[in-house]
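User: Modeling request: complex.
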Amino acid sequence: MAKNVYLFKEGNKDMRELLGGKGANLAEMTCIGLPVPSGFTISTEVCKKYYDNQQKLPQDIQHEILEGIKNLEKITNKKFGDPTNPLLVSVRSGSRASMPGMMDTILNLGMNDSIVEEMIKINQNKRFVYDSYRRLIMMFADVVKGASKDKFEKHLEKYKQSKNKKYDIELTEDDMEKIAKDFKEIYKEVVKEDFPSDPKVQLLEAVCAVFKSWNNARAIYYRKMNGIPDSWGTAVNVQEMVYGNLGKNSGTGVAFSRNPATGENELYGEYLMNAQGEDVVAGVRTPQTIDKLAEELPEVYNQFKTIAKNLEKHYKDMQDMEFTIENGKLYILQTRNGKRTAPSAIKIAVDMVNEGLISKEEAILMVEPTQLDSLLHPTFTKEALNKGNKIGQGLAASPGAGVGKIYFNAQDVIASSKKGEDAILVRLETSPEDIEGMNYAQGVLTIRGGMTSHAAVVARGMGKCCICGCENLTIDEKNKTLITKDGLVLKEQEEISLNGNTGEIYQGKLAKTEATISGDFELFMQWVDEARNLKVRANAETKKDALVARKLGAEGIGICRTEHMFFEENRIFNFRKMILAEDEQKREEALNKILPYQRKDFEELYKAMAPYPVIIRYLDPPLHEFLPKEEKEIKALADSLKIDIKQLKNRITELKEFNPMMGHRGCRLAITYPEIAKMQTKAVIEAAINVKKEGINVKPEIMIPLVGDEKELEFVKAIVDETAKQIMQENNCTIKYMVGTMIELPRAAILADEIAKHAEFFSFGTNDLTQMTYGFSRDDAGKFLNIYYNKKILESDPFAKLDQKGVGELLKIAIEKGRKTRANIELGICGEHGGDPASIQFCNQIGLDYVSCSPYRVPIARLAAARAAIESKN
Amino acid sequence: MAKNVYLFKEGNKDMRELLGGKGANLAEMTCIGLPVPSGFTISTEVCKKYYDNQQKLPQDIQHEILEGIKNLEKITNKKFGDPTNPLLVSVRSGSRASMPGMMDTILNLGMNDSIVEEMIKINQNKRFVYDSYRRLIMMFADVVKGASKDKFEKHLEKYKQSKNKKYDIELTEDDMEKIAKDFKEIYKEVVKEDFPSDPKVQLLEAVCAVFKSWNNARAIYYRKMNGIPDSWGTAVNVQEMVYGNLGKNSGTGVAFSRNPATGENELYGEYLMNAQGEDVVAGVRTPQTIDKLAEELPEVYNQFKTIAKNLEKHYKDMQDMEFTIENGKLYILQTRNGKRTAPSAIKIAVDMVNEGLISKEEAILMVEPTQLDSLLHPTFTKEALNKGNKIGQGLAASPGAGVGKIYFNAQDVIASSKKGEDAILVRLETSPEDIEGMNYAQGVLTIRGGMTSHAAVVARGMGKCCICGCENLTIDEKNKTLITKDGLVLKEQEEISLNGNTGEIYQGKLAKTEATISGDFELFMQWVDEARNLKVRANAETKKDALVARKLGAEGIGICRTEHMFFEENRIFNFRKMILAEDEQKREEALNKILPYQRKDFEELYKAMAPYPVIIRYLDPPLHEFLPKEEKEIKALADSLKIDIKQLKNRITELKEFNPMMGHRGCRLAITYPEIAKMQTKAVIEAAINVKKEGINVKPEIMIPLVGDEKELEFVKAIVDETAKQIMQENNCTIKYMVGTMIELPRAAILADEIAKHAEFFSFGTNDLTQMTYGFSRDDAGKFLNIYYNKKILESDPFAKLDQKGVGELLKIAIEKGRKTRANIELGICGEHGGDPASIQFCNQIGLDYVSCSPYRVPIARLAAARAAIESKN
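Assistant: Request completed. Predicted assembly structure:
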């Protein structure tokens, strides 16, 4: 029979999959002798069994859990449910991947009225006992019974007000007793039954509740955002309680072994004396910084510091730890690799290599590619910061430059963002319900909470600018205003700027400047480049984009979408004339007017990118996309073309398509109107000749889109070759160019061996390939994809993360067949997936030569490529 | 070095691919000792070489051809270009597949002025010599130089008028001399050079011209229509001339070994004395029927009759022969398997089995599946024929019942048909330029020409109703009217009815009746059913269609498209209400109103089809397809639904999609609105229970459309199973049903192993699969597919004929993977391809269990399946 329950001493850190991250690390720490309260872990497999069994715990597993309790009783010499020597436990979730705050926790489990009475008799700390009891009752109602905490919290608030007290800590033991008893009443009122007095019932219900919380809305959203499979499930950790709320010599805190915002090698954290863990994380009271502990309890501080360094060495990574001090004795309740900002991640990685703690390759694996995003985005200019009207100062919880209109709840932020506005989420403190709003916001500002508060942790995880604990600002919820200490009142929708690097808040919209790659970041990227096999190119049409891409490390252009060059005002006129031409001659006349622009564009691209290759994709979209849709615009066009509006409308109607995505586009245009391909070839080759004459090395690669049959490519390639030959002869100059195609239709993938006869390179157009393979129109699928996520039919957006099983299989088929015909065929990817780390890993695995992505994602792609190379080697 | 030129005695009938049909058969006849004028064949490979060599004959091949002439000189004891003993030859095309009249022929080649003079001296038949010469000149101008025959023909016509003669044959030898000399002048005028006097130049240019004619517009169109690959090329036959225009004892004719219209076992054909072959085929004079020859030249007739029977036995098929009588001596110029009408094909096949000439399997291979089409279409009712106003009588050239508006040229027929009208093409005589118009027409009527005229041959090939040689009607070209001998004047666009079975023409539109399968046809279809492996099902939604399908041999319904059932007036209202419902409850209310209709439909289908299975495909199209588009209709709907028109318009806009083909449809609907799948399941199961209670055996198969991932199917299947279980429990009745899916997305094919976990059957939806694999929108591709055919990028419509290389490969992958998961998975096809013989052959080859097609194509599919089984066995 499978084992479902593991004592901490039975596990180790490599058992994440089975025990979850928290469980595995508690086991590991137990084994290396750290002061960890005893406990056991119910494995992630039980989570699956729970869901397979209609959300009930199978009988045999219930037995095993109660066996676990018996073992724990032996280890602790306490007895679960025994008033004279009660074993109290915490019940916490812990999945394979860290999902901070997403799932539920219950503390102090195992109490009931008679145990409470005996406990008071024995340890003579009535205040502590009732404090623990009232917490248990509320958590149990909330987590297990799904009742809102509201009534409990409001009652507590009212009670404090009636006693004229601000913090819980100021309440007396009698107050606590009264509150605990009131909570029992409230429990009965909201749950419609008595609080269960049997600790075993408490335990089994709590375990189920934790499993259930795996599928609460915020956990699902978090998983979707972070690409965590629904199938993993969570483990449950049952652990003997230790108490930070026993009195002055007790406390609880969280700390990082290094600074998670800057990466500085210093112990960094916060604690609260006489409190339980939840108080710190929830940001209820603003806590003390960890260095204060050195003064308050120097021995404990030093012990903790040593443990932190040891854990870092042991795990070879920066650690995020929870601890509790019970009557002066230190307990470690959790350790995990700490989340950190991008600059911090880079600094820690580089420092640890320099400290000899890790190898360069390990350093590379320590930085998540998407994290770099925040390093690549603009920061405020010095000038703007100097001139700016600073209206507040908080903790620099997560770096970045956030600018937007203020909104006071997540829904408003989402609505505003969906309208295309930039929004800043301003909250007293955030809770897990705010995650989606945070994701949409340009920045997050909270009035309460420290560096480890919910807002700070989540924002850092998202790479989102965040300022916390900004107590010099106040929120007027009713009037939806933010008020500075100078009395300035900012209304909803007014703009502010957040400097996440310093914690400073400014009125209005501050100017920003481009980011640069320098210092530790530059060094790190050098290591990255040494480690990777995949080249990284950029998708770019303009000189500006090409130069940015070069600066960020691009090694060529993977796709220049030539149609983007036709939209400019002075070009679109002739382009439209071309579309509306009645015969080939008129079409050629119009094309000849476009030629000089196109040639100049290509010259600029070649120069910006030399000596790297530039892939030029020929005209792709259906022609009707270039024609106006509104009556007014149509009239204007008819006037400027001097044609009858009716005639123009007829032509527009004629060009209309039912399914333009599968319509008259791609190489189908070049086959219908070879003169377009001729003009584009002229521009490509003439530009190359001009640039070559300046002594610059050019490598144009001509890419024919939407090929589904070798004959299509053969036909267009013949036009290209013929035109190129003629231009080269006329100019007495030879240009080495390549002709290749996009593989973006399933048929092209399946017949890649035939197509490769005419193609010197393939570039996988995975946007369209995903559309055709799934039969999903990218423009329409939004309507049902959300339902697909909700109903767990899809786990992620196949347009963002490559569908390796389906679309990926077509890629593999195409590569195998393509290479069969042409062993050295150049292979790359130019869909959106070229910038997605998971997809890049797949590209590395299937043996592409390069990926291509938008300029700002180039460093991300470089890092992802390096990580993929290292991982495939390991 | 490859051999390019073959003397007739070097070949045989199995060398079709190399020598073309005509060449192979001339060789065969030569070898079995029939009186065939000597000659040689230039192989089809030379055609390819000609095109590869920029439409020039390579030097070495020119040599080889002239070597062929030398060999021919030895055999005939004549000399090419020698005035005293000239060898004259014909140069004719001949491709692997018969393409009657599509390519070019030149007769009498090798003449020039001095040869003409000597010939007259020697054989003392000046009329014949000049007749031959003038023909050569005109044909050479037309075929080799691409000049129009117009001027020549008009000149001849005028000349005859000036001499008051009607037929060429009435012209004297001096007339002929004058005409030949005039033709030389006209030649110079239109070709801008002298007629070439060097026979070798004539020969080589003529050979090139024949190769070139492989790619004339009508040949391309014919190939496209008949699925003949462009790559095959044509051979060229060079043959010693024999003359039917030597005088009264000479003649030329064509004949079939059996009647090609009815299949009667009788020699059937026509001939003209003192004429060359072209005169018969072109329908210039109405020729004599072959039985007249028995009187005129009984010996020749008997010799020909014996040869015909022998050829039939030799080829085991009805023969279509050309012959020439030169001064009383019979020559066979060509034999080939004769084209025939469908009834004739059936009768010949059955008769030949009965005669012991062929096996049943050979009989099956003798009938083309598509031919059956004409047998399955309606004929005029006896009553209508009795009452009808008969306005003319011609030859029953090709059977069928053609009704439509009359038009006097092909263009007008095409235009009218494209507007959706039924059109009848009425012509003096047809020429190859009319083919496209004939294809569009409902029937063809010609005033001149016999049973082997162009119109008759082509119409029979198309299975199109045709009446020829209707000389009691006249055409007034100028006024576009058709005039009966009673003086009735029918204007363009007036309706007539053609009875192709009798040759009778009626005024107006006669009523038709359904065809039945009986007699020889029934017997033949029994043989067919014994031979095939593939089952044949029908696509049907209505009781009527299901009954027709049963009558035509369907063994189940392969797809019932349930959405077709929603369009009826009293249903669409509730269906629209469902679409526009604001919540699940309202949607269910509307669905409940549709349920009884749907249930009744299914009951009728089950009954019509029992004991065979019925596949019910769940709602597939995007919902917006069911909503009105026109302002007026929208208003009416808003009124009847009692909702605000603005609100309705908003909803319509909301539902609109950019690419509906890849939008919110198929199983995506059932996933979004499970209540639709629930209602449909209720209808399926309740109907089955009701029918079963009547003691009828039902086999519903529920088909979920547009599945791309196993989870989609799993989700919908769960709804189906749950609903079915509930209904069955409520009714205390068990129904065996299957749940399966369409494989119509590339992803479904690629992941068929996963999908098969939940699918008891796959039905290949090759319409959508073709769309997605090619990225062709069926509704839009028309715009560029014609260009694709013209530019030879595609050879046939992939929506009509399955793309075996691309789409077919996906089918193979899906079958292999599907069977890996579920060895006995039921496999079928329900796309349009299920009724296409070539595609059915492929379906047989890849091992499907059945094909499904429209009811009227069921017999065609049965025959195609039988042929495929026999061919794969052979």
